[in-house]
Amino acid sequence: MRYCRFQLNSQAQYGLVESAAGRDQIMRTLVTSPEEADGDMESLRTKRIDPIPLEEATLLAPVRPSKIVCIGRNYREHAAELGHDVPTEPLLFLKATSALLTPGATVLRPKISQRVDHEGELGVVIGKTCHHPAADEDVRQYILGYTCVNDVTARDLQTKDGQWSRAKGFDTFCPVGPLVTDEIDPWKGVAVGVRVNNDVRQDGNTRDFIFALDVVIRHIAQAMTLFPGDLIATGTPSGVSPIVAGDVVEVSVEGDGVLRNLVADE
């Protein structure tokens, strides 16, 4: 199942996305939101609409999280390129929900930063309340689906501050979308990449995670309850680089589409 969030008649709606005649189209709206499904998307009522080609829809961020939990340095080569040690357990930080940005909207480089980087990542959307799952419990039951995330980072402020809240939390610093899908399997390996102005900058695969998703989710849920709709950004592969005004940044997750955003100076 694949879904998006979009504007229809000036209202935000969730829509089911299906392939028809070789194009992704929004075929039905969800009467209730995915966050209310308690992990059972099949139970949600839908309403048929006239098909809307996905590329013609006014898309919104497909998530409304109570929190955005991020994993730092979850690829060895990324840790190495920044001169950091490989963590011995998942490294957690939070990103402000006010940083959320819709597909196609503009990332704003703050005036106080001299270097802003892209960080393409696989995003995990929680579908069911998760707190202290048992060691033998399959954490997949808590996952609603997966999406593309750009964990935009003011790299100079990250280094200066020591902790990362400001560097990661500026408004527009968390583009997400365009879809959420449950049709991919990160445990088997999913390609994650970034292009800037059509130039490949990052090219990774979830097979290279230091900490697999079950380890990550259990680690987070030992500290804080994950609620339906919460978003986990699972770490970025090597190849992060500065972005400047006028750039077009494309984050891709295999089987999930492409998240495309412009860059401008504040």
Give a description of the structure:
With 266 residues, this protein is mainly beta. It has four helices and 19 strands. The strands form three sheets. Strands 1, 2, 3, 4, 5, 6, 7, 8, 11, 12, 14 and 17 form a twelve-stranded mixed beta sheet that branches. It has a five-stranded mixed beta sheet with strand order 9-19-18-15-16, with no helix packed on it. The longest helix is centred in the last third of the chain and has 11 residues. It is globular.
Short précis:
The protein is mostly beta strands and 266 residues long. Helices cover 11% and strands 41% of the residues. The protein is built from four helices and 19 strands.
Biggest β-sheet: count, sense, barrel?
Answer: 12 strands, mixed
Low-confidence stretches: none
Principal-axis shape: globular
Give me the secondary-structure category: mainly beta
Number of strands: 19
Q: How many helical elements?
A: 4
Q: Strand percentage, roughly?
A: 35-45%
Q: Quick check: average pLDDT?
A: 95
